[in-house]
Amino acid sequence: MFISLHPWLNFFPTSLYKPSASTVKKEPTNSQPSRLHRWIITPILNQLKQGTSPAKISLTISLGITLGIFPIMGSTTIVCLLVGHLLKLNQPILHIFKTLVYPLHLALILVFIRIGQHLNNVPPIPFSIPQLLTRFKTDPLQFAKDFGIAALHGIEAWAIASLVLIPAIYFITLSLLKKLLPANKSEIRNQQSTIANQNQPDN
Prior knowledge:
The protein is mostly helical. It has helices spanning 2-5, 35-49, 54-68, 76-87, 91-100, 102-119, 129-138, 140-183, 185-199.
């Protein structure tokens, strides 16, 4: 009986006992790039593809980090804009690295001021909130004078530190970019040739 029923099986559609492609479960793939890749690596690679040299990008990164810790609250954006415009640096990359070091900027303001005061043999100015309010109410002009000088002391210490920071960060990032460049060399070369063809005038 089993043998006699066997030919009838050929009349059933194969879709009844074979799983379709739509019902096969696919393993989820994590194809989305990380935030580090989207916010840092991708903008740098885009600049390399457009023909910007690794040295120019390294200079942009080193200045973005160093200017990002400039010891005047609320001034780093304006400083980066001015320096980036004068040196014709990539503003997005400059401001990315300026933003990355913002917590360090807040932490180092008092450090730079203290170092500057030490270099100039100036007694440290108290920075507690009650003392600041008391001195401001007592003599606003003297308050502005004292803390204006303290800001200059902080800028002096920052300028001395930048003489070491800028070349150190520059050479570190330059070596990293030279390692990153060969891995994407063919893609970068294709992008550069595409840009060159688009810039050629039509005959």
